[in-house]
Design a protein that fits this description.
Layout lengths: L5 H16 L5 H14 L3 H26 L3 H38 L18 H16 L9 H9 L12 H9 L6 H34 L6 H32 L17 H7 L2 H12 L9 H19 L3 H19 L1 H10 L7 H23 L3 H13 L3 H4 L4 H4 L3 H22 L4 H7 L2 H18 L17
């Protein structure tokens, strides 16, 4: 079930109505049933697989607590290891089996072996498996570290893993934040409803008006890049940068808004990423729930920055390689992760040299021009890595880079070439206008302004003008697909 579908438009009000009508002590059961129905709309098999992961991590939490009570730390470590191994094995089988088989077969061909391994038959992509697996595993580790108490109610824990607003594409929540809120249902408030609905409207706007219209520019180029010039590939890559941002952030806003009306506060997953002044700063602003997950459960256990500079760089690279592999079973994602890790390491290594250059040339690091240059450079570097994220294969990515460097005439970059890519001029105008609106809102947020709160505090004419503007933009300019094909969210594949 997609957020931008008629099904969700009917599903969510029903869930909301009964949630606040039934007795408080039964509300989590209702939400649990609704969450499994929401996920089961893709496939009942998906829901059964999530149930298995839920039960494994729930039982592991109980065993860790029992081991601690009996003062058997070795057994507690074994329980943690078992939970991680089993869950990651399930994730690996469903997400990476055929990828590993394909690469094994390529190696066998290279070695001159005629016999090859067959693909796993009937293996289907499992929507959101990476998200709920990581969320469940964080519970196991949090219980082991004694950051949270062991949950004794399997239904309340199952709701934590399956909570439908953030189930399929995050944010990846922590036990201490989400589970405690789900255990204490809140009363319906007008403030939560107003704030949540505004978040939902904004999320839909940047998804169906911005991202889905940009997809009409991006998809033709990346599907057949040989038919386009280097300039058009550059423009399509810039468009993809905002497409993936609007698409993923749009999901997160709708998830946060849906949860807020229920009285649940989810973490912020994006913080004006394209206003970052370095690649490291970008990753502090982009997909924050995943970045902090890797920091807390991989980077820190590996030693973080506590064991010298070289070890810090190695740990950083490991995290980004794993992050790339988390995003998909394709070498393009692995290389994308390595490139981001490498750029962060280069930025760290060049910090001293940068400081000397600033001092030597008497550069005012607080000036607008200096900040703007750093933001533009960061945006260009991130866009360079997006080519590998979006390309179907490494060969396609390499071919596009060749086009960019060998078939690009700078004057054409500032022409109206982008209008030649889109289906029609309206798509381009709508996409560019909504992009400017997004950047304006992000610029205000980056300067510390609470944009949503400002809107909610305005008088009725201004407030309802904004509401109606968003609604009409979504209805009139949103790219909803047709009755049979809704526009998927990009991160559903992860």
């Amino acid at each position: 079930m997609l957020f931008n579908s008629l099904d969700y438009l009917l599903f969510y009000p029903v869930v909301l109505l009964f949630y606040f009508l039934i007795p408080r002590r039964f509300r989590y059961i209702w939400l649990l049933a609704a969450s499994y129905y929401f996920y089961g709309c893709w496939s009942v098999k998906y829901a059964l697989l999530m149930l298995i992961s839920t039960l494994i991590t729930f039982v592991s939490g109980l065993l860790i607590q029992r081991s601690r009570d009996k003062q058997r730390p070795g057994l507690a470590k074994l329980c943690v290891a078992g939970s991680f191994i089993i869950n990651l094995a399930i994730l690996g089988f469903f997400k990476y089996s055929n990828f590993l088989i394909e690469n094994l077969n390529a190696l066998l061909i290279f070695l001159g072996q005629g016999k090859q391994v067959g693909a796993v038959p009937g293996l289907i992509p499992v929507v959101g498996i990476s998200f709920y697996t990581f969320q469940a595993l964080s519970y196991t580790m949090d219980v082991y570290r004694q950051d949270v108490p062991t949950e004794k109610n399997v239904f309340q824990y199952a709701l934590f893993v399956s909570f439908f607003p953030q189930l399929v594409a995050g944010p990846i929540e922590r036990t201490g934040n989400l589970l405690s809120q789900l255990k204490e249902p809140q009363k319906f408030t007008v403030e939560n409803a107003r704030g949540g609905l505004l978040l939902i409207a904004w999320g839909l706007f940047i998804k169906v008006v911005l991202a889905d219209n940009l997809a009409r520019i991006v998809n033709p180029v990346y599907a057949n890049y040989t038919a386009y010039s280097g300039v058009e590939i550059i423009l399509a890559t810039f468009a993809f940068a905002f497409q993936v941002y609007g698409d993923f952030a749009g999901y997160s806003y709708i998830a946060r808004g849906s949860a807020e009306i229920l009285g649940v506060s989810l973490m912020e997953n994006f913080r004006c990423p394209y206003l970052a002044v370095s690649v490291a700063d970008f990753w502090r602003r982009w997909h924050i729930s995943l970045t902090t997950w890797f920091k807390d459960y991989l980077y820190v256990p590996l030693g973080g920055n506590r064991k010298g500079t070289l070890r810090k760089y190695v740990n950083t690279m490991i995290v980004f390689i794993v992050s790339g592999f988390w995003h998909g079973a394709n070498w393009t994602f692995v290389l994308w992760g390595m490139m981001n890790g490498g750029l962060i390491i280069l930025g760290e290594a060049a910090r001293t040299l940068r400081r000397k250059a600033v001092a030597a040339f008497h550069i005012n690091t607080e000036s607008f021009s200096y900040t703007l240059c750093r933001r533009m450079l960061t945006f260009l570097l991130i866009n360079f890595t997006w080519i590998f994220f979006r390309a179907k294969t490494l060969a396609d990515a390499w071919g596009m880079l060749q086009k960019i460097f060998l078939d690009t005439r700078l004057p054409k970059l500032f022409s109206l070439s982008i209008f030649n890519i889109a289906i029609n001029a309206q798509v381009t105008v709508v996409a560019l206008t909504s992009m400017m609106i997004l950047l304006f809102v992000d610029a205000r947020k980056n300067r510390g302004h609470q944009v949503r709160q400002w809107v909610l505090e305005q008088g009725a004419p201004v407030r309802y003008g904004i509401y109606l503007g968003l609604m009409f933009a979504i209805i009139l300019f949103g790219a909803f697909g047709n009755a049979q094909i809704q526009t998927q969210f990009i991160y559903f594949q992860f």
